[in-house]
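Regression test case RT-17, inverse folding.

Input:
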């Protein structure tokens, strides 16, 4: 049979200490960490003692069941005309230098593209890639036979970037937006 004195001593100690908590105290007399960390969710916490600072319990972040994709860009109500600046990306393009034009975003997944390349007015269209509201392709053609193909990605309805290749082998990086 166990020693009765030991059993009584253990029972008395557990009864005396059952309602106590040991909490580290900061220099200002308040708890050294937020009270919510001690008491946990769903357990009421005591009010601050006189002379101690009350630290509110942190609020848990809302749970998300699955990672969410970024929201598609908000579509303005009407067309927007944007500047397109093409910067040389190879030696052939460097001979001509920077080229500029305009893109009219019709806010329907389509746009119109105009640019003057070596004195020839190239016109064409830009279309968003099916299933991706940000990526697109653009093509333009001039009356003397020059043409251009681009791939781009929009970060908003008003800004984007991509790459363009011309029929003479010139390659450019395009920046779209004002």
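Golden output:
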């Amino acid at each position: 049979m166990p020693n009765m004195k030991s059993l009584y001593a253990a029972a008395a100690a557990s009864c005396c200490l059952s309602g106590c908590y040991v909490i580290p105290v900061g220099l200002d007399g308040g708890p050294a960490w937020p009270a919510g960390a001690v008491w946990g969710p769903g357990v009421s916490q005591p009010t601050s003692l006189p002379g101690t600072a009350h630290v509110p319990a942190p609020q848990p972040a809302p749970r998300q069941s699955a990672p969410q994709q970024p929201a598609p860009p908000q579509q303005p109500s009407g067309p927007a005309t944007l500047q397109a600046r093409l910067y040389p990306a190879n030696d052939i393009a460097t001979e001509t230098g920077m080229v500029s034009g305009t893109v009219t975003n019709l806010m329907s997944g389509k746009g119109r593209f105009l640019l003057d390349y070596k004195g020839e007015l190239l016109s064409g269209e830009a279309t968003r890639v099916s299933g991706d509201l940000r990526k697109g392709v653009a093509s333009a053609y001039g009356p003397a036979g020059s043409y251009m193909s681009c791939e781009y990605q929009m970060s908003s309805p008003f800004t984007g970037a991509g790459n363009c290749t011309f029929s003479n082998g010139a390659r450019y990086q395009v920046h779209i937006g004002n």
